[in-house]
Task: inverse folding
């Protein structure tokens, strides 16, 4: 991916303790007696990557993940900056549909039609935002930063997305969190799941940070010189939750990004797996540092 390791020329605000207007606040009971509500639900999105055979045979492939908008004061006008996971885009790039009959991964012009969209809004009135570009990618963190148009794909109207505050400092194990889970269908006997875009279901799930691991898989501790490569949390997320935010319940700031599940050990079993939010900042410039454009 061409943008792997690219540092954006603008910074992401440090918001470890966002104010009332910025923090994600949760309410466990909505007026209709259903699922928990979050004041920052307007920042959530479904990121969809699509490829279709242009021959008319009808072959296509769709990969989707969760994502969320972040505040980027240096971004272009009319641009929404979306954080999501990278592996769903990689699935499309390496899909046999793109490689079938070709001696290399290159795609001949006109062979396929492909594109990516950020979908927001309620399931009854979804809004499609075309992805303009991949701004940055971090393979070791499975993170992707996308630029999406604030205008709908079917309308010139500009839909301003709410953004989530991001905490650059890792929280301690035992910290109560809320993680945004998505599923093709609600788990059996599970309460609080509500319809979301594309026929999926969603829920803010209460959980706890279990701990961290470094890149070698060794236990790592926040506040030390350890490299915090992996964040483990309970409960494990549902398939389709990748790219969603992990929010500190007390501060209301994003402290991690959901990636999936991981077998921690035979004793501890399967845990939720993500990356600490501090990795997101590695794709942005440091505050007060002006970088020249590098294309």
Result:
């Amino acid at each position: 991916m061409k943008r792997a390791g690219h540092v954006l020329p603008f910074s992401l605000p440090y918001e470890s303790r966002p104010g009332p207007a910025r923090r994600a606040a949760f309410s466990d009971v909505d007026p209709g007696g259903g699922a928990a509500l979050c004041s920052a639900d307007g920042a959530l999105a479904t990121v969809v990557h699509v490829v279709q055979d242009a021959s008319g045979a009808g072959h296509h492939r769709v990969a989707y993940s969760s994502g969320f908008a972040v505040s980027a004061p240096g971004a272009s006008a009319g641009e929404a900056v979306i954080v999501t996971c990278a592996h769903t885009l990689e699935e499309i790039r390496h899909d046999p549909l793109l490689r079938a009959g070709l001696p290399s991964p290159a795609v001949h012009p006109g062979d396929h039609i492909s594109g990516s969209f950020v979908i927001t809004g309620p399931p009854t009135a979804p809004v499609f935002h075309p992805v303009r570009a991949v701004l940055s990618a971090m393979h070791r963190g499975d993170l992707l930063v996308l630029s999406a148009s604030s205008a709908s794909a079917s309308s010139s109207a500009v839909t301003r997305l709410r953004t989530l505050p991001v905490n650059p400092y890792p929280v301690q194990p035992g910290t109560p969190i809320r993680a945004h889970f998505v599923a093709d269908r609600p788990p059996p006997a599970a309460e609080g799941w509500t319809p979301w875009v594309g026929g999926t279901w969603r829920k803010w799930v209460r959980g706890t940070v279990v701990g961290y691991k470094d890149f070698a898989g060794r236990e790592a501790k926040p506040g030390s010189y350890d490299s915090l490569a992996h964040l483990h949390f309970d409960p494990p997320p549902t398939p389709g939750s990748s790219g969603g935010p992990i929010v500190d319940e007390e501060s209301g700031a994003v402290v991690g990004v959901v990636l999936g599940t991981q077998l921690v050990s035979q004793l501890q079993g399967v845990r939720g797996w993500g990356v600490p939010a501090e990795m997101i900042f590695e794709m942005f410039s440091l505050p007060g540092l002006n970088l020249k454009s590098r294309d």
